[in-house]
Each structure stands twice: as C-alpha cells, then as structure tokens.
Amino acid sequence: QVQLVESGGGLVPPGGSLRLSCAVSESIFSFSVLAWYRQVPGNQRELVASSPRYGSRWYSDSVQGRFTISRDIAKNSVDLQMNSLMPEDTGVYYCNGERPEPTGSNLNYWGQGTQVTVSS
C-alpha cells in the first residue's frame, strides 16, 4: 500500500522559513507527479507546487519565488522549502502523488497533512 507521510510543519513568525518533507513508501520515480497542496478551513484544497517526473516544476502565483519543491533521491521524498513566509501561507499542507497503475489508470495518493501556522 502506497503511503505518503508529511513532516516539518509548525509555528513560524512572518518572514521565517520552514521545510516540509513527504516520505514516500514507493520509489518517487514511479510517480508521474508529486505535489504539495494547501487547505484552510472553509476553502477548497489548492495546488501550491508540483514536480512532474518529466518537465518543469510549477508554482502558484502566491508562492512563486518563495517556495521551492524538490525530489530527494537519497530520502525518497518530495520536499517543500518555504521562505519569506506570510500569514496567508497558514494552512494544512498535504503531499500528493499521482501514479500510473498497470491497468492504465492513474491513482492519486494523499498524506495526512501537516499544519503550518505563520503568526507573530
């Protein structure tokens, strides 16, 4: 069973940095896309950054230039480096992986989420 486990969330003051990590139970190269989403109460989950197996990384306008998504081969993880954090970055951050299956379909897998709170 595929598992994604996030870590690294916490409380940080505005302007600070955090690094989130998502440990993946299967090879990160078996996923066509690995991504990070964010959700705040009352809102839909929004895509923050994505790392396709082939092609360029993508970032939402709200985090472009401040966040960096990367795949760590040694740890078999997908990480999100978050700099210059702002209060509006507060939310639960979820790791997501899209993986092609032998049947030809693509399945989506989610982690349990990690809370990030940006506040003084």
Query: Per the principal axes of the C-alpha atoms, what is the gross shape?
Result: globular
Low-confidence stretches: none
Number of helix segments? 0
- Fraction of residues in helices? under 10%
- Give the terminus-to-terminus CA distance: 40 Å
Average pLDDT figure = 96
Sheet of most strands? 7 strands, mixed
Please tell me how large the radius of gyration is.
14 Å
Please state the structural category.
mainly beta
* Helix-strand pattern: EEEEEEEEEEE
DSSP strand (E) fraction? over 45%
Structure description:
The mean pLDDT is 96. Strands 2, 4, 5, 6, 9, 10 and 11 form a 7-stranded mixed beta sheet that branches. The chain has no helices and 11 strands. The chain is mainly β and 120 residues long. The radius of gyration is 14 Å and the shape is globular.
Keywords:
4-stranded antiparallel β-sheet, 7-stranded mixed β-sheet, 120 residues, globular, 11 strands, mainly beta, single chain, 0% helix
Write the layout of secondary structure elements.
Elements: E1 4-7, E2 10-12, E3 18-24, E4 33-39, E5 46-52, E6 58-59, E7 67-72, E8 77-82, E9 91-100, E10 106-110, E11 114-118
Parallel strand pairs: 2-11
Antiparallel strand pairs: 1-3, 3-8, 4-5, 4-9, 5-6, 7-8, 9-10, 9-11
Structure described in brief:
The chain has no helices and eleven strands.
